[in-house]
C-alpha cells in the first residue's frame, strides 16, 4: 500500500498481547535473533507488501485493453484506479482497531480472502460497474493486509529489531513498481487483461495457507472504543468530495447535483473536525495539528500528490492511446521511473542532511512540477532516449519528494501521537492518490473535449495540456513547504518512502 498505515503503531506504547506464535528472542543488544517461525512471518508480510505494490502498478498499463474489452473509452477508466485507492484510504483508520478487537490472525486471513476474491471478481467482470465493485472488495482486503501485517511484525520484533525486520519486509515491495507495469503489458499481449488479476489467485491461496501457520494472534487493549461517529463523518466527506470532483468535467448528474455533493462532503469534514475536538477518543487526536511540522508536512503531502498521483495513470495512456505504443512497450518505458526512484534513496538522506528539509522540498517541488510539465512537450517523433531521460528525471525527483515530505511530517511526533500521525499520513496519501487520478482524468476529459476552429482538440493536445496543468499544481505546493522554517534541517534517521 502506498502508506505506512497502522502497521507502525505501537512504537509509542500502544501495546498488545503477544500470541504464542509470535514468541521470539531479542538479545541483550536489542538485535533480532529470530527463530524459524519469526522468519516465516517476515516472508509472509513481505509477500503481502509485494502483492499490494504489484497490484497498485500493474493495472495502469492494462487500462486501454480493459477499456476495449468492456466497451469503454480508455480515457474514462479512472474509476478502476480510484475505487481501489479510495477504499484503502477510507478503511485505514479502522484497520488497527479491527486487529486489536478480532486479532491480527483473523483480520489478516480475512484480508487475504477479500483481496483474492476481489481479484477473481475483477477478472470475471463484464462491465465497468462490475469491475469497480470488485476493485472495492479488493481495496477492503488491501486496506487491512499491509497495516495488520506491519502491526504483527512490530509486536513480534519490538525495539531495535523492528527497523531491521521492516527493512527486510519492505525490500520486495520496491520491486513492485519495477515489475508491475512491464508484467501488466506482457500479460495483456500474451494472454488478456484478465490475467493481471488472475495472477493474484495462486499467491492468495499460498498466502492464506501460510498465514494460518505463522501469523500470530495478537490483540490490543481490551475494550478500546472505536470512534464510529467520527469515522462515518470522515468517510462520508472523502467519498462525497471525490465523487463530485470525478463527475464535474463530464457533468454527470448536472452541476447542481455535483456542487451539492461537494458541499455535503465539505460539511461532513468540518463536522468531523468539530466532533474530534469534543470526543474523548477521536480517530485522530486534534493535538496532531498543533505540531507544526506535521501540519505543514501533511498539507504539503496532499497538495503535492494531487499532481504526481495522476502520472502513473496518465503516462501509460499517453504512450498507448496518443503515441501508439503497445502495452508491453508502455510497461517497459516505466522501468526508468522505478529505477531512478530506487537509485535516489541513499542520496536523498545526504541531501536533506546537507541542505535541510525546507530547502530541499521547496527546490525539489519546483523540479517535480517542471518534470511533469515537460511531458507536455512529448509528441510524434519524440526520441526514445529523450523519453527515457524524462521518465528517469521524474522518477528521481518524485521519489526524493516523497522521502522528504513524509519524513518531515512525522519527525516531531512523540508518544501517543506517533501512531495516530502515521495512520493519518497514510490515509492522506491514499486519499490524495484518488484525488490526483480524479483531477488528472477530469482535466484530460475537459481538454480532449474542447472545440477549436476547424474541429476538436486532438487527444495528444489534451494530454499535453493536462501535463502542464498538473505540473503547475504540484509546483504551487512549494509555497506550503516554505513555511517549514529554518529549524527543519535535521536529516531523517529512517526515510519513509511511499
TrEMBL record:
Family matches, as PROSITE patterns: MFS (PS50850)
Main location: membrane
PANTHER family with a match to the protein in the record: BLR6921 PROTEIN, MAJOR FACILITATOR SUPERFAMILY MULTIDRUG TRANSPORTER MFSC
SUPFAM superfamilies per record: MFS general substrate transporter
NCBIfam families xref list: PRK10504.1
Location within or outside the cell: Cell membrane
Entry membrane topology: Multi-pass membrane protein
Lineage: Bacteria, Pseudomonadati, Pseudomonadota, Gammaproteobacteria, Lysobacterales
Record-given protein name: Major facilitator superfamily MFS_1
Amino acid composition bias (Basic and acidic residues), ranges on this chain: 14-30
Keywords, sorted A to Z: Cell membrane, Membrane, Transmembrane, Transmembrane helix, Transport
Amino acid at each position: 500500500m502506498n502508506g505506512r498505515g497502522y502497521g507502525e503503531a505501537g512504537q509509542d506504547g500502544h501495546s498488545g498481547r503477544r500470541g504464542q506464535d509470535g514468541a521470539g528472542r531479542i538479545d541483550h543488544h536489542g538485535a533480532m535473533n529470530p527463530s524459524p517461525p519469526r522468519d516465516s512471518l517476515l516472508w509472509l508480510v513481505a509477500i503481502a507488501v509485494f502483492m499490494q505494490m504489484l497490484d497498485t502498478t500493474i493495472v495502469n498499463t492494462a487500462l486501454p485493453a480493459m477499456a476495449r474489452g468492456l466497451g469503454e473509452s480508455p480515457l474514462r477508466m479512472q474509476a478502476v484506479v480510484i475505487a481501489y485507492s479510495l477504499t484503502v484510504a477510507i478503511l485505514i483508520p479502522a484497520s488497527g482497531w479491527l486487529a486489536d478487537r478480532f486479532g491480527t490472525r483473523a483480520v489478516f486471513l480475512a484480508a487475504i480472502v477479500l483481496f483474492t476474491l476481489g481479484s477473481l471478481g475483477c477478472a470475471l467482470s463484464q462491465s465497468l460497474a462490475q469491475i469497480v465493485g470488485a476493485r472495492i472488495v479488493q481495496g477492503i482486503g488491501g486496506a487491512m493486509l499491509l497495516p495488520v501485517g506491519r502491526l504483527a511484525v512490530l509486536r513480534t520484533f519490538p525495539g531495535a529489531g523492528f527497523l531491521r525486520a521492516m527493512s527486510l519486509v519492505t525490500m520486495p515491495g520496491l520491486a513492485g513498481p519495477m515489475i508491475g507495469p512491464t508484467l501488466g503489458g506482457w500479460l495483456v499481449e500474451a494472454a488478456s487483461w484478465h490475467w493481471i488479476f488472475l495472477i493474484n489467485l495462486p499467491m492468495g491461496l499460498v498466502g492464506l495457507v501460510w498465514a494460518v501457520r505463522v501469523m500470530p494472534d495478537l490483540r490490543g487493549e481490551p475494550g478500546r472504543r472505536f470512534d464510529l461517529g467520527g469515522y462515518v463523518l470522515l468517510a462520508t466527506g472523502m467519498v462525497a468530495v471525490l465523487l463530485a470532483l470525478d463527475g464535474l468535467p463530464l457533468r454527470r448528474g448536472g452541476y447542481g447535483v455535483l456542487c451539492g455533493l461537494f458541499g455535503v462532503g465539505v460539511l461532513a469534514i468540518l463536522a468531523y473536525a468539530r466532533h474530534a475536538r469534543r470526543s474523548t477518543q477521536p480517530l485522530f487526536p486534534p493535538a496532531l495539528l498543533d505540531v507544526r511540522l506535521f501540519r505543514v508536512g501533511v498539507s504539503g503531502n496532499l497538495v503535492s500528490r494531487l499532481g504526481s498521483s495522476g502520472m502513473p495513470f496518465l503516462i501509460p495512456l499517453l504512450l498507448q492511446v496518443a503515441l501508439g505504443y503497445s502495452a508491453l512497450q508502455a510497461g517497459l518505458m516505466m522501468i526508468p521511473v522505478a529505477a531512478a526512484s530506487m537509485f535516489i534513496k541513499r542520496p536523498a538522506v545526504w541531501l536533506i542532511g546537507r541542505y535541510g528539509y525546507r530547502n530541499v522540498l521547496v527546490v525539489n517541488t519546483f523540479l517535480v512540477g517542471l518534470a511533469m510539465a515537460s511531458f507536455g512537450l512529448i509528441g510524434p517523433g519524440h526520441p526514445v532516449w529523450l523519453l527515457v531521460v524524462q521518465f528517469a528525471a521524474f522518477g528521481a525527483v518524485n521519489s526524493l519528494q516523497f522521502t522528504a515530505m513524509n519524513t518531515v511530517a512525522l519527525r516531531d511526533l512523540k508518544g501517543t501521537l506517533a501512531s495516530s500521525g502515521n495512520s493519518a499520513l497514510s490515509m492522506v496519501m491514499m486519499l490524495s492518490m484518488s484525488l490526483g487520478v480524479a483531477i488528472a482524468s477530469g482535466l484530460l476529459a475537459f481538454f480532449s473535449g474542447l472545440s477549436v476552429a476547424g474541429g476538436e482538440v486532438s487527444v495528444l493536445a489534451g494530454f499535453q495540456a493536462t501535463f502542464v496543468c498538473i505540473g503547475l499544481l504540484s509546483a504551487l505546493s512549494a509555497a506550503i513547504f516554505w513555511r517549514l522554517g529554518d529549524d527543519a534541517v535535521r536529516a531523517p534517521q529512517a526515510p519513509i518512502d511511499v
